[in-house]
Specification:
heterodimer; A: mainly beta; 48% strand; B: mainly beta; six-stranded mixed β-sheet; five-stranded antiparallel β-sheet; 11 strands; globular
């Protein structure tokens, strides 16, 4: 497709389970960002990649969160031992250029932890 | 993580009014400033990317200015229309290779 694709769009899981959220960026885009977005709020930075290198993971809340982009294209955000407070919209965005390129956002993955 | 602040948090205007809101960011080591428009149930869409002090950009009735020395950007909407109702997000980065950090947004409501 032409846009950023995220899957699953909706995920309901029980507390303690692991979840993996996938982001397929626009082909050729260099940078890939993960954000978490609470209802009605701006995106909260989690981590980002330039090509396959994770540039900054300072926004990851704790060590249950991890992300990878092994071949510089598709990225996976993994949350281990999920907790109810992890429930949120997780958005991925990609950009054709580092820093000055505009971000193209995916539709997000809505995670609900019961 | 740098602090990007937007004000006001929300505002309500009448159709035809012009309005503006502010994005504040750390002025030291500034690299880039982005503005996005976000409608409920959709994904944020880019409006402007600015890098130079004094930059002004315009798209239709929406324009933005940038002051990197004092660390602020203004977004202006001329003759607001109901379809302008959305949350406007700004984001900033410092130094090449650092993350793009968003503010919490300004939610604009335009009534006819």
């Amino acid at each position: 497709g032409a846009g950023v694709s995220q899957s699953p769009r909706y995920k309901v899981t029980k507390r303690g389970q692991d979840v993996a959220l996938r982001c397929d960026p626009i082909s050729g885009h260099v940078s890939l960002y993960w954000y978490r977005q609470a209802l009605g709020q701006g995106p909260e930075f989690l981590t980002y990649f330039n090509y396959e290198a994770q540039q900054d993971k300072s926004g990851l809340p704790n060590d249950r969160f991890s992300a990878e982009r092994p071949e510089g294209s598709i990225s996976t955000l993994t949350i281990q031992r999920t907790e109810q407070r992890d429930s949120a919209m997780y958005r991925c965005a990609s950009s054709p250029r580092v820093n000055t390129g505009e971000l193209f956002f995916g539709e997000g993955s809505r995670l609900t932890v019961l | 993580i740098l602090n990007v602040e937007q004000s006001p948090q929300s505002l309500h205007v009448q159709e035809g009014d012009s309005t503006n809101f502010t994005c504040s960011f750390p002025s030291s080591n500034f690299y880039a400033l982005h503005w996005y428009r976000w409608e409920t149930a959709k994904s944020p869409e880019a409006l402007f990317v600015m890098t130079l002090n004094g930059d002004e950009k315009k798209k239709g009735r929406i324009s933005a200015t940038l002051n990197t020395k004092e660390g602020y950007s203004y977004l202006y909407i001329k003759g607001s229309q109901p379809e302008d109702s959305a949350t406007y997000l700004c984001a900033s980065s410092v130094q090449a290779g650092t993350a793009l950090i968003f503010g919490k947004g300004t939610t604009l409501s335009v009534s006819s």
